[in-house]
Amino acid sequence: MTDPLDTVFAALADPTRRAILSMLLEDDMAVTDVAEPFQMSLAGISKHLAILAGAGLITQEKRGRVKWCKLEPDALRAASVWMQGFGQFEPVNLDAFERFLAAELPGEDEGLAVQGD
Amino acid sequence: MTDPLDTVFAALADPTRRAILSMLLEDDMAVTDVAEPFQMSLAGISKHLAILAGAGLITQEKRGRVKWCKLEPDALRAASVWMQGFGQFEPVNLDAFERFLAAELPGEDEGLAVQGD
DNA sequence: GGCATATTCAACCATCCGGTTGACGATTGC
DNA sequence: GCAATCGTCAACCGGATGGTTGAATATGCC
After folding, report:
1. Matching CATH number, A4-104, of 1.10.260.40, 3.40.630.10, 1.10.10.10, 1.10.220.30
2. Separation of CA B111 and C1' C22 in angstroms?
3. Residue ranges per domain, chain A?
4. Does the CB of A50 sit below 7 A from strand C?
5. Which nt sits closest to B39, CA to C1'?
6. Tell me, what's the pLDDT at A88?
7. Which residue in B32, B77, B93, B117 has a CA-CA distance of 20 to 30 Å to A107?
8. Distance (Å, whole) CA B11 – CA B53
9. pLDDT, average across residues A19-27
10. Which residues lie closer than 8 Å to A30 by C-beta, 6 or more apart?
11. Residue of B18, B80, B86 lying closest to A84 (CB–CB)
12. Half-sphere exposure for A15 (CA within 13 Å, toward CB)
């Protein structure tokens, strides 16, 4: 796994990690807060965050005993360019993206296990 | 692995599979021809193609004893929309894409093992 | 100092993944 | 009919992944 695209796409292939990225869209978060909505151990989330950081999709900065996670959307640029080359997609459709978020975001108001089923 | 994004991103995470997609950009190909530039067994390539087909990134149609593989760029649309939402990337830059292809495409003129290493 | 909080480390487990080889099922062509 | 070609299936292997638990390491607070 040398190519950056490998690690980026692999990181994006997991629904938990995509959900985390969606959460970080709204604001930077501490590890514990990231983990809160998931029914998964903190260590598990910590691993996911390490993978996201390894792919450059987030950065983590420790302030005091709290480690803050910050989205790094630039890391997606290369992957996005690669993908768009195949589809000649029309210009970004943010409405479609909103719909995606609605479908993908952990239902912050109920139990949640990343995906319904 | 239920979400289509899971399978699409997972399929894209492998350099062999991305190389195959790049090859199919140019034209539809038979399985044997897809396999030719790789130093990998036909069965191995066949598995990769099955994964790409499972993600909807290609379709396969059998004509006679030859199975033709066809790129299905539409399958990337959802993933592309998802990604672009994070970056608000500037409009598609096809030049950047060409550079990517140049870097990623199997060097059809030498041995090749997906990545030079 | 001593306890609580925040996060990771280490070991472990089950499962998936990428790859191989060898046998097999279709299809074509002589 | 028979042999060659195209492609997949099945079994197997080693290594990565996603998850767990329990101990360990920092840091903050009183």
Report:
1. 1.10.10.10
2. 26
3. 4-104
4. yes
5. C19
6. 55
7. B77
8. 9
9. 91
10. A66, A67, A68, A69
11. B80
12. 20
